[in-house]
Amino acid sequence: xxxxxxxxxxxxxxxxxxxxxxxxxxxxxxxxxxxxxxxxxxxxxxxxxxxxxxxxxxxxxxxxxxxxxxxxxxxxxxxxxxxxxxxxxxxxxxxxxxxxxxxxxxxxxx
Length: 110
Prior knowledge:
The chain is 33% helix and 48% strand. The protein contains two helices and four strands. The radius of gyration is 18 Å and the shape is elongated. The chain starts with a helix and ends with a strand.
């Protein structure tokens, strides 16, 4: 009995860890858009690097329809010594990710 309970607890822990490490929906699209965003602001540069890690932030409400929410994904990138935080805002419908907005902020201590 103790062995089966331990096995069940271990299985649940493994599933929870796997779910925690799963990439958020639209993350591939966000990484691709982040590279395009940095390129748009700074031009073509082989030193542009985009982190594959995507963090999902709390959603925001659609200002035009308070019943809808937008997904906010945070991606980090760099060019040479500059680091940039980018937040990409998506409307998700099923498997479709529609980019609704984007912001870029240089990470600097002035």
